[in-house]
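cache lookup: miss for this entity combination. No prior model stored, computing from scratch. Input as submitted by user K.M.:
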Amino acid sequence: MKLRFALPVLALLSAVVVTPAATAQADPVQAADACYTWGRTLSQGASGEDVRQLQIRVAGYPGYGAVLAIDGQFGAGTKAAVTRFQQAYGLGADGIAGSATFSKIYALQDNDCTPVNFTYDELNNCNSDWSGGNVSAATARANALVSMWKLQAMRHAMGDRPIDVNGGFRSVSCNNAVGGAAGSRHLYGDAVDLGAGPQGFCALAQQARNHGFNEILGPGYTGHNDHVHVAHKSSRFWSAPNCGI
Ligand SMILES: [Zn+2]
């Protein structure tokens, strides 16, 4: 067997191994993941769907009070987020997403692209198809995915203890049934209500400020003494007076 294949294998190697750079770029492809596989190293200046997929995974690393744009353009904000992600996991922190960074992401995500410690099901106890909100079902689900990656970053930063999720997406009828606000972010899929868990409400609300949540509501804010609400929002609104926020 070895003799029979020796010549074809050598021919294949000489054809494929052209430069060291080509070899290095092959790593992410070989680490294929059922959710998404990156096919090239990404650094500042890159653009495309692969950049957008990366931005979703590092959305929880924008820095205090910031929100990372999920726009497919690898700018300074994306570089900083990738660097923080790398630092969080003890990788070489150069802000360039290559095989080590992608390998860590593969290890952190499930086959449906959710981070390993959060699920679509726990972010929707309203209905099964994400319909009936203020955006399309696909958009609501995509928004929830970004919030899950933010929560994964927050969970890791808080010692990898479980974060208690009480719900997320609501259709208009679900929102009305629980007396939610008319413009509630739950209608968009990106809001998540958190239980106290082992961390406690105030630690969760305070930590959330580092992970891309423009809306944080907690103890001391009307109706939020028994949970912490985190969500995306175009402009910042944080209020948890009992937690110093
Ligand atoms: Zn809420």
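stored under new cache key. The first strand starts at residue 165 and ends at 167.
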